[in-house]
Model the fold of this input.
Amino acid sequence: MHIIIRPTADEVAIAAADILIDHVRRGATLGLATGSTPVATYKQLIRRHRAGEISFADSRAFLLDEYIGLPPEHEQSYHHTIRHEFTDHIDIDEAGVASPDGMAADPYAAAAAYEQAIIDAGGIDVQLLGVGTNGHIGFNEPGTALTMPTHVDTLHPQTISDNARFFDSAADVPIHVLTQGLGTIQRAGHLVLLATGEHKAEAVASLAEGPLTAMCPASVLQLHANATVIIDEDAAGGLRNLEYYRFVEANLLKR
Ligand code: GLP
Done:
């Protein structure tokens, strides 16, 4: 796991955008995340697209997850959110931005169809990830099998309360979701996880230095041969091996 520590959240976004742009230049299939953390990275990518530096015309994208029961036009559906925050502002083909169908009559069949669509597209080249305060990635809550494909999950009360800020009340947060599984995520070529702020310090310490366990779904990154974790100083606060990560960063052997 390559851990990159930057002084501020803005610098985390700049570092993440640099990595994503490298992939986009090669026509990558992108795995996109919602939540507040990647928003600054999306702003960087939009800015650099507007500056004429990068085109997304040869890329397509798969979202990580979706709430069950929110129609695509609902403001808090991830289908809507990713368009509003990112893909409506770049030149990616709108038809190439896929997300699990949260309104499917049979969500279990929708999960299987989404997994197959990712396989049919040749897989995801680079998967952007945030992390929940309880260590979840996508909507894979603690206890989810480390090998799961895209599936139906039930949100943890902690996640419902964390995400209530986007809704009128916690009672409005859907309880059920469709999410790429930890198995799906592990098949992406490059994982790029972002975390900023002191409230993420515990989750970051667990995923990077804790045991590999389904109780911290993000610890599955320990199994991936190409995982990059980009965090700010606040989110790095719980790491024990911090000085070594800084040493590695200062002495990178360039390819
Ligand atoms: C949601 C999303 C996750 C995201 C997490 C953290 O639950 N499903 O993909 O990583 O929230 O969100 P934030 O970045 O807002 O802290």
Notes: Helices lie at 9-25, 39-50, 78-85, 107-120, 157-163, 182-186, 201-209, 242-250. The chain is about 30% helix and 15% strand.
